UniProtKB/TrEMBL annotation:
Protein keywords: Membrane, Transmembrane, Transmembrane helix
Domain SGNH hydrolase-type esterase: residue ranges: 99-344
Highest taxon above the source species: Eukaryota
Classification of source organism: Eukaryota, Fungi, Dikarya, Ascomycota, Pezizomycotina
A family per Pfam: Lipase_GDSL_2
Full protein name: SGNH hydrolase-type esterase domain-containing protein
Compositionally biased spans, kind Basic and acidic residues: 11-20
Residue stretches spanning the membrane: 56-75
Length: 367
């Protein structure tokens, strides 16, 4: 026997010994054949697919990160360019126009910026402008100053606001609406008291002149005698303002209360309760006419209800916001008009209205 045959015999013997130790039937061998080797091309394709999926996920992650970074950058740019951005209160007003009579102008309140108009540098429009500028400054927007076109003139009627020039004896003023800039985004309007002879009647009583001496003159000069008539005239003013500054929010500002809850006729003014009742009726007519004028203009016009909020600050109050009848001969004390505290109070009420209308983001003060 040669060596090859011997090796084959040994191999066969080993195979028989292994089969004896691990017997497997022919059926089992048929059911569980040994796995076939994976072809090389299949392995390559699977590897390429896995690589492609990984590349896609990586690219998607990069795109998402880029979008997120772009959003952050754009938000930061918008915030830095927004003149109203910053912490605390922020105003969305850039240009104010103020129209009205003496209750808007502020005669007798120092400093007088325009003597012919009886216009104070501390009237409510000027105070509001300074507050809004302070808000901008506090939030780092020093280049975003709020502009003010103060057109108010003491003694003005609603007609002087829209169509008739006003001669004060020291100067002639064009109808105030002509000075409203079309860029204004807030217009303050106050008027009507001179149209119904409200303040004039009070001042004549302060001078203890007979009321009937002027009643005929009042009727002849076109004075109004009802809230409806006043509302119609006031509505014309509001429409003219809206036409001049169509993007502006218009605020119709009421007059301060004069004869409030603390007033006592004969004690706080030289007239009796009958005349006090008459003047209160005129004040009610004024307020009703002002509020009614807003009808049909609600989208862009709002009423600032000063009267209801100043009942505790009338003549005779512990902290009056108006002057009494004393000092008729003193030009620094104009009877039955707002004092410096009153102008501050009205400005605070207007500011709260701006907060309510979301023209200022939050409130930083109390009335």
């Amino acid at each position: 026997m040669n060596e090859a045959s011997a090796d084959e015999n040994v191999t066969e013997i080993h195979r028989e010994e292994r089969d004896a130790a691990n017997p497997v039937s022919q059926e089992e061998e048929a059911d569980n054949p040994p796995p076939a080797p994976t072809p090389t091309w299949a392995r390559r394709r699977r590897r390429a697919q896995n690589q492609w999926r990984g590349n896609c996920l990586f690219r998607l992650l990069i795109v998402l990160l880029f979008i997120l970074l772009l959003v952050i950058i754009l938000a930061d740019m918008t915030h830095s360019q927004d003149p109203n951005s910053g912490d605390g209160a922020r105003a969305k007003i850039t240009h104010i126009a103020s129209l009205g009579s003496s209750y808007a102008a502020g005669p007798g309140i120092s400093p007088q910026r325009n003597q012919a108009a009886g216009r104070s540098g501390n009237n409510y429009a000027a105070l509001l402008q300074r507050r809004l500028n302070a808000l901008a400054s506090n939030n780092g927007n020093n280049n975003n100053n709020v502009a003010l076109a103060d057109l108010s003139v003491s003694g003005a009627t609603l007609l002087n606001l829209i169509s008739e020039p006003q001669d004060t004896g020291l100067d002639v003023f064009a109808p105030q609406v002509k000075g409203v800039p079309d860029a204004a985004d807030l217009v303050l309007v106050l008027g009507g008291g001179n149209d119904i002879d409200y303040i004039g009647g009070l001042m004549r009583d302060a001078m203890e002149l007979p009321a009937d001496l002027f009643e005929g003159m009042s009727m002849m000069s076109g004075q109004l005698n009802s809230a409806d008539a006043l509302a119609r005239r006031y509505g014309r003013v509001l429409d003219a303002v809206h036409a001049a500054a169509p993007r502006a929010v218009v605020l119709a500002v009421e007059y301060l209360t004069l004869l409030g809850s603390d007033f006592v006729a004969g004690k706080h003014a030289p007239f009796d309760e009958g005349r006090a009742r008459y003047h209160r009726q005129r004040a009610e007519m004024l307020n009703n006419g002002t509020r009614a004028a807003r009808a049909g203009r609600e989208d862009w016009c709002h009423v600032v209800q000063v009267s209801d909020n100043t009942m505790e600050h009338g003549i005779g109050a512990k902290e009056p916001w108006v002057t009494d009848y004393l000092g008729v001969s003193d030009v620094t004390h104009v009877p039955y008009h707002p004092n410096a505290a009153g102008m501050k109070g009205v400005e605070a009420i207007i500011y709260k209205k701006l907060v309510e209308l979301e023209l200022v983001d939050d409130d930083d003060g109390e009335l």
